[in-house]
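For the sake of clarity, the format in which proteins appear in this thesis is described at this point. The record quoted next illustrates the convention:

___
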Amino acid sequence: MSPPLLKLGAALSTMAMISNWMSQTLPSLVGLNTSRISTSDTLTQISPKEGWQVYSSAQDPDGRCICTVVAPEQNLCSRDAKSRQLRQLLEKVQNMSQSIEVLNLRTQRDFQYVLKMETQMKGLKAKFRQIEDDRKTLMTKHFQELKEKMDELLPLIPVLEQYKTDAKLITQFKEEIRNLSTILTGIQEEIGAYDYDELHQRVLSLETRLRDCMKKLTCGKLMKITGPITVKISGTRFGAWMTDPLASEKNNRVWYMDSYTNNKIVREYKSIADFISGAESRTYNLPFKWAGTNHVVYNGSLYFNKYQSNIIIKYSFDTGRVLAQRSLEYAGFHNVYPYTWGGFSDIDLMADEIGLWAVYATNQNAGNIVISQLNQDTLEVLKSWSTGYPKRSAGESFMICGTLYVTNSHLTGAKVYYSYSTKTSTYEYTDIPFHNQYFHISMLDYNARDRALYAWNNGHQVLFNVTLFHVIKTEDDT
């Protein structure tokens, strides 16, 4: 075969390889299984999930916004990956479109040359037939030479036919790429509002607004108690366990005080996990025995009722010293006004979002509950509220957002039966049940950081989740 024919044969072989690659690889690369593209199927694949949802909203009679806020887990928006994939796919298609355009130009140029050669070969073949018919008039030698050349050219005829087929296939691919580019561009325009950068900014803005909103949701009204979650089984029938509501997120120390009297030992654990496993980190020997189980850890200090007195003690865990002590004037003690279960539970110390509180009863208030807000440094009474609920009829009590919630029993069937708001100095009877799983509660305290109730339930340390109803104040509210 002559050099020009070798060059043409190499070009045709290359074209056949490219055509084969295009027919097999291109459809899978761009996500196609047939030569036609289904717009609806492509659009169905791009179906990003929503990252944020609105659950409910309403207004009270005064026009204030009332809502329940549920903070979702912080995840990257699912549209982001889809948008990046779409952009990358569109870029690939555009690159392929440019490559196919160059290939098409070269193919068309070669195609014209091939058509011209095909015409010449067909003409040459016709001449050979004529020569064969009249070969007697020509020299046998010249005829043989021409016949050999023709025989060399004959294998090129099917190659030329394949070349024409490949050229048509490239034209089809070019049309498919054009259609695919149009569809992808349309999809990109449709979800253009959800571009990654814009979505990211919207998420950051929404998170900022949500944090601002949550600052207004520091207080709420108790609506439901769920649980309990049993954390551990240990100790006697009566006791207390707690964490510090003012501790940082990394500080999850647990304090454990077994029994309601005749004890001065406080056990500390670095975390709930250590508490469960019993990996004690430190032991404190208090200077005085405590009374009851209604102690509280607040801002790094333990507040407890000194045994056989109405004296409140503030003890620092950091220094191991008593920082303050003060008599709670007129407060009954040593089982004069305990909760229904007894156990010297006359004085109940607790904390909430507002601060430190003492709940007790006095003769002056006919044995009914008195609520006093305390100065956490000096233990001075800042203000007191006298309720009409008998202390000895209360199973336990706890404060949430300046409202005292009282249970009607410490036994099975107990429920939150009464509440008193220090903000409005008003009370109401409630009906909020909760599951007293182990039949005897001797300690029930709210932790504002965890938004949970810590309880000692017949030798079981348990947690209750609480659901609060929040009222968001507007700028016009006073």
